């Protein structure tokens, strides 16, 4: 009988997910294994309808497509799932045993779980209960210490840079300040990369609490040098040094100044009021998660996928595939999800930003 | 002595402005004329520094670039310009005589004014005072009755469609409703074209006051047909039939429900509350004005530019170049700016939208 | 019983084919009809395996994709099909009766045939035999007199223009002449549109037999004006005035100078030899047929598709849908395929090319 | 007096050159230095007209543009330059002393030479004569051992992948084999990366002499699996194992089978003849060198540029900037240009290609 492999994708969308699935299905099939995809996270282990047999014909052409053919909607944590009982009350139940049981009953020898730190944490807990799990990291924010890069990030940065390219001409034609808010709740990777590549004047990242005065100074300095427009890139997690900026939706905390439009809108407001410059803000939002993955992300996702299948062959479970320099490695999942990667302020990229005159808000 | 031609660009940014300039400079130079560009609208007729001689070498390569090398920032209406007097008071003065005087003194025989209806109205008033003016229409919204098409529109639609393409994968992967607000304060052209091309389920345009219940019904119908995500495209000027939606910034009118995020955010809120669907909204904003013009817009802009130069040669002033079917024509400016073009609800495009199942909110 | 509609796509590939299929399937289904797609042209009427039931779920998302889900490979003309007999000899047989018979037996009430003039001619012959046929024109070359535009053309032009944009920087950096051969065997539409939009210096089209001396003169004139690079766009069907250029593969005609690389390579060779300029040539080829259709082509294809379904409803057969100004019309197929559309040398577009200084080889 | 820095770009075009110039000009100006650009390689040291002062305003916006504002046309090797004497004979002369002399006379303290191995070799020879030179590597082929990556490569790969994406739909719609020849005379990096990312079935690289029979086998195997089209990516330097393929233009060597169209055309011919499949070939050529650099290449080019300026400050001459893992380093030029980087056949990327079923011709 042929070996049976399960693959699932969990959590947020990232360009390259389909390339991972493509790689797993084609390479595992070539090893003589059968591959099954679980829709909606662990859904395929609860409902047969959410389990789908995948052969190479099924994945033909998906390599270049955004999204995931498996649907990554997280149907919650199986270890503490809210369930409505007969009395209509919500109870938290642990359905992990049932899932593990189904996994074994269906005869899978391995589960490749593609997901962010939440999904990987769940995968690790299943591994501890005996499920042979291999993780594939998925974070568009590139904020995982254990791997040099994650797929999706290059595409997100490209989309953001492309938007900045587009805004340059309109900003310049109208002597405007354009403030663009990009993804990055905890780390400024997308803001930093797209800002440098997109010719930003100012880049605000969570790693550097910003002084609003530095922003005014940079824009004024531009004016002095006959550059009457400025581009500001703001990571959604960027914050002012004096804590003045509070995040969207925190109105209930009793602060008078609630940022309804996010930090980008707040920064734009400040500039507008103080410098009397025509200032517009834009939130890129979900555009950054969509679209066909870049070549870089496709290749990285394919490498992750084939590496995961090789780990499955070698029986190295409870590990996550990772990129170290230019080599594929395996890192224990528990360890991998422990450390987030922040922008290193001493790194060459940050220095490059400063050298070409970009203001980082400090 | 060689004849001297003046060109200016006024008002908002639109992809193709540089192609018009390119066409005017190259074709006028080939007729043996000298071309001068006026920066900042009529600025070049007030300040020599804002007047720039343009030869073909200066415009090499600008054809494919967004924005305008002349800067289109409107420095206000010369017929009623706010000026600060010595006492620090703001007075409204008419500086049109001075501008006309400078125009004549510098020896220009024609002024090609590229602009929206505001700029064209000013151009017409100068024409009435004796300035030989030729207008080139510029409205990214494509809402001018006098011409079949305006440049910039195809690029704006392409940018919006591209965004919709990107959002499909993420909406589908997460069973989400995505609401995208596009340009169109008075007409729904961009929303209609991009919505149809981008595979939207629902398109809301100013020409059709929408019933929020129709939107709920369409999304629910999608669910019934196993399509668990929906894409909603909303023109910024779309309004609910019962007038419930009021526009951003109209809070002073005493309505309790001010839409801080625009109509798109309002629609998203309603869907979220009523259908309990994960719903996200996005405002494309200035992205739609930026970027390299599409082939269609480049060609149209070049045709407008050369046609304007031909009108100048023929001495047909106070007219605007226009596209009628596939021919260039000339329309009196006064007449041209009088009629806005709304989406014709009986047109083939609207019928196409309905035929393929798109809900138009009615 | 529900009415059954057949759709087929024939001949060469064109971006927008899938959008036509999308429009036909969704709009016909909404009328309560069943839609079937015939793979490989009329293949579905010969082999049940090549007939596929299409419901809206099947066409979800194909609107933005190039190619055709039905496969357009022409399996030959059913009216004179080469068939190998038992003796191994090739015989020409007429299998049209069999196809018509199957069409009727399966109970189809209408066949929407999407194709070029070859496919439409066959469709017309079937119509004459009694098959209720509606044609949808498909020619990437835009060379059909009966319709203002065909889908695929705008995408092809965009791809060619994009290539020209890319070549500018490298041509300029190296003081090179770049010769780009684009599609257009009989008409110069793609060359003309992409050449104007892409900033070409010289455009050679079949409608204007070119003088090689005019090409040399333009390149030399560029040098005089300090422009040390030139871009030449050549339609594959362009020919020298003195008939010196003969087409690829016509070596058997006894000419010594056979163009192995096509007319573009020939032109490049002449320039290289005569002007001693570093000259490179490139054939864009099939790139022009691929990729996601532009917004313009998507919209046009969708309009064609829904218009065809409306004609089916009205029972207007043996007609082809067409675009006249901005309206959908129906033209008798026999008439539609009779006239090819050549570039009108007196048209505004040609004049624009000349006005901005483009050499058209004459 | 302010320190004066010279920058030059030499050899072939690569996306990112302008980003290097941008970084050098902005970061050096911020150190209080004056920057001069030398047009046409060392031309600025021979002719004052080819020397241009560069201030930040001059490089605004060039970061995102392809090509080089300095013109990279190599006007030959100054150490052995062919010069015509009065008698009309060509003599080889060494003008390096004159160049060095001018360099010193103009008071430059450092020369940043951006170029390929040819240009870097010349730079090193100048360094040995006493010119303080810093090298910035430029090879679109990514074939330099001394640095992990070079700019331009990611853009070239993206362009090639984009072309493959476009060809998929047309290949599939017509059951065709498409053979695409990409850059890579000595190494298969572009072919390998674009082929994997672009969903190729077969990738032929110089590092693996190919067996034509393997190609036939893979295409036939595709047919067996109901995939009636195949995509073949061929590096221009790929060769058949038995030496049957000889390069373009080597006809004089007496071989009967000269490949007029390059190895791609040859492979296409073989497939066409042997398998009777409709097979088309395409040479991407200079498209790969053009266009706006990707985010990756922009960032890398900016890092190289600022790193070079930092080396200039530190006085580390006769060295080339390089990327090692994620850090900028300096490598002696002489050493750097000695080793070409071939595709490592044991690398993870090659294994990935094999794992997902790509035939590498062996």
UniProtKB/TrEMBL annotation, chains A, B, C, D:
Mg(2+) binds at residue 117. The record marks 118 as: Important for substrate specificity. It catalyses: beta-D-fructose 6-phosphate + ATP = beta-D-fructose 1,6-bisphosphate + ADP + H(+). GO terms for cellular component: 6-phosphofructokinase complex. Its EC number is 2.7.1.11. InterPro entries: ATP_PFK (IPR022953), ATP_PFK_prok-type (IPR012003), Phosphofructokinase_CS (IPR015912), Phosphofructokinase_dom (IPR000023), Phosphofructokinase_III (IPR012829), PKF_sf (IPR035966). GO terms for biological process: canonical glycolysis; fructose 1,6-bisphosphate metabolic process; fructose 6-phosphate metabolic process. SUPFAM superfamilies: Phosphofructokinase (SSF53784). ATP binds at residues 12, 75-76, 116-119. Keywords: ATP-binding, Cytoplasm, Glycolysis, Kinase, Magnesium, Metal-binding, Nucleotide-binding, Transferase. PROSITE patterns: PHOSPHOFRUCTOKINASE (PS00433). It is found in: Cytoplasm. Pathway: Carbohydrate degradation; glycolysis; D-glyceraldehyde 3-phosphate and glycerone phosphate from D-glucose: step 3/4. Pfam families: PFK (PF00365). This is ATP-dependent 6-phosphofructokinase. It comes from Desulfobulbus oligotrophicus. The lineage of its organism: Bacteria, Pseudomonadati, Thermodesulfobacteriota, Desulfobulbia, Desulfobulbales.
């Amino acid at each position: 009988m042929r070996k049976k492999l399960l693959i699932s994708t969990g959590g947020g969308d990232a360009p390259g997910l389909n390339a991972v699935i493509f790689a797993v299905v084609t390479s595992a099939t070539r090893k003589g294994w059968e591959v099954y995809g679980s829709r909606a996270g662990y859904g395929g282990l609860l409902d047969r309808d959410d389990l789908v047999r995948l052969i190479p014909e099924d994945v033909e052409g998906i390599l270049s497509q955004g999204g995931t053919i498996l649907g990554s909607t997280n149907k919650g944590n199986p270890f503490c799932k809210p369930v409505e009982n007969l009395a209509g009350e919500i109870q938290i139940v642990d359905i992990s045993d049932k899932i593990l049981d189904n996994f074994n009953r269906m005869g899978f020898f391995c589960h490749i779980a593609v997901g962010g730190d939440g999904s990987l944490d769940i995968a690790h807990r299943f591994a501890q209960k005996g499920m042979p799990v291999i993780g594939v990291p998925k974070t568009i924010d590139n904020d995982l210490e254990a791997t040099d890069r994650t797929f999706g990030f290059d595409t997100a940065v490209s989309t953001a840079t492309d938007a900045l390219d587009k805004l340059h001409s309109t900003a310049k034609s109208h002597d405007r300040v354009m403030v663009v808010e990009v993804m990055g709740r905890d780390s400024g990777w997308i803001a930093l990369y797209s800002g440098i590549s997109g010719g930003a004047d100012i880049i605000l990242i969570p790693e550097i609490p910003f002084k609003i005065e530095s922003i005014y100074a940079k824009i004024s300095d531009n004016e002095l040098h006959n550059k009457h427009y400025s581009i500001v890139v703001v990571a959604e997690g960027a914050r002012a040094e004096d804590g003045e900026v509070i995040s969207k939706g925190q109105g209930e905390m009793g602060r008078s100044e609630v940022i309804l439009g996010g930090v980008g809108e707040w920064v734009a407001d400040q500039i507008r009021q103080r410098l009397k410059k025509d200032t517009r803000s834009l939130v890129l939002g979900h555009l950054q998660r969509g679209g066909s993955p870049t070549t870089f992300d496709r290749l990285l996702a394919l490498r992750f996928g084939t590496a995961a299948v090789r780990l499955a062959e070698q029986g190295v479970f409870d590990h996550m595939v990772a990129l170290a320099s230019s080599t594929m490695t395996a890192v224990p999942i528990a360890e991998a999800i422990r450390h987030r990667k922040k922008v290193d302020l001493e790194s060459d990229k940050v220095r490059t930003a400063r050298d070409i005159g970009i203001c980082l808000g400090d």
